[in-house]
Design brief:
This protein is α+β, with helices and mostly antiparallel strands. It has 15 helices and eleven strands. The chain has three domains: 12-97, 434 Repressor (Amino-terminal Domain); 101-198, Homing endonucleases (Endonuclease I-creI, Roll), CATH 3.10.28.10; 204-327, Roll (Endonuclease I-creI), CATH 3.10.28.10.
Length: 337
């Protein structure tokens, strides 16, 4: 059985339009499975089974498809193979077709603040498959996604496409390029699960203060936020939330090296991952303002909540300022000068 995040070299099942989704949903719903159950059963990521297969963005490897049908749809096997599937594609069929999306040449960027910020953003909200980078966030933070799209275009010369997932407020921004994925892997990122595969900040980012500040902004705008510290008191805290002890330790290192005094909390001492969370906080009130002076934010949610804190001494829940968040346009990161 293949490892998650590894590319499967196999023939592929090409379904008639709509039938691959129909099969995936039938298996899931008829057997009361969650997306995680289904992903675990076939040793793939939730992203793969729910979006790539379930939304027909990618074909299903032949061997896995047969296993699915034999286990869950054996009575309909002849119907599926004869009528639902239009053809069986050969191994490496995408390479034979010289798929333009995946072989597109990219610009190779130099080490920079922009690249440092992007890598941190991916550590927060990104997911790497063999040919695709997917960024997932809340729809009301779409201006931050537009900011990321511009950043990727400036760095690599790539364009993106966006998907609003039905039945949720989730927004996905996707970039297709094997060269992009190869470049990101060389810079500390990993295919598949970021926790078990121990993704972390590359060492070059720690070589310059400007790179570290940019990386902190990327982490803050994806895995972080500003919150009320104590109800009834005009005090705030900044918190970075992750399930990865490696990303948590990188965050602490970035903060300490740029003059902050972070505190940390973890639900356990596992070397693999924290069961609940591996959180890092800035609680000193002067450092809260310093953070927005030197690091800033490109996420409208964080920007507006901090402005509320400056004006009123309290931070509203994001659901209560949803419409205001959606009206903010992001051209460059906000900093309180």
């Amino acid at each position: 059985m293949r490892k998650r995040g590894k590319y499967i070299i196999d023939k592929r099942m090409k379904f008639k339009r709509g039938y691959q989704r129909k099969m995936i949903l039938k298996i899931k719903n008829d057997n009361n499975l969650t997306w995680k159950n289904l992903a675990d059963e076939f040793d793939v990521s939730i992203q793969t089974v729910m979006n790539d297969w379930g939304r027909e963005f990618a074909t299903i490897p032949y061997s896995l498809g047969i296993r699915m049908i034999d286990k869950y749809l054996s009575k309909e096997k002849n119907l599926i193979l004869s009528y639902w599937i239009s053809e069986i594609l050969p191994k490496k069929w995408g390479q034979f077709l010289a798929g333009e999306l995946n072989k597109k040449k990219i610009k190779i960027p130099q080490e920079s603040e922009g690249l440092a910020e992007l890598i941190a953003v991916i550590l927060g909200d990104g997911h790497l498959e063999r040919k695709t980078l997917t960024m997932t966030g809340n729809f009301f933070e779409r201006e931050h996604h537009k900011y990321i799209e511009t950043l990727v275009n400036e760095l690599f010369g790539l364009s993106a496409y966006n998907i609003k997932l039905k039945g949720s407020n989730a927004l996905q921004t996707k970039f297709h390029s094997t060269e992009l994925i190869d470049f990101l892997i060389k810079n500390g990122l990993v295919l598949g699960n970021k926790i078990t595969n121990k993704a972390r900040i590359p060492e070059w980012i720690f070589s310059k203060r400007e790179f570290m500040l940019a990386a902190l902004r990327g982490l803050f705008d994806t895995d972080g936020g500003i919150y009320n510290k104590q109800k009834g008191y005009k005090r705030a805290l900044i918190e970075f939330q992750t399930h990865s002890p490696f990303i948590r330790d990188n965050t602490i290192k970035l903060l300490q090296r740029t003059g902050f005094t972070p505190s940390k909390s973890a639900s356990n001492n596992s070397s693999i991952g924290c069961t609940l969370a591996c959180n890092t906080r800035i609680q000193n009130q002067k450092e809260i303002h310093k953070f927005f002076n030197v690091v800033g934010s490109a996420n409208p949610k964080n920007i507006l909540r901090y402005k509320y804190f400056l004006k009123r001494g309290e931070i509203p829940l994001k659901d209560k300022i949803y419409k205001e968040i959606c009206r903010i346009k992001i051209i460059r990161p906000f900093k309180r000068l």
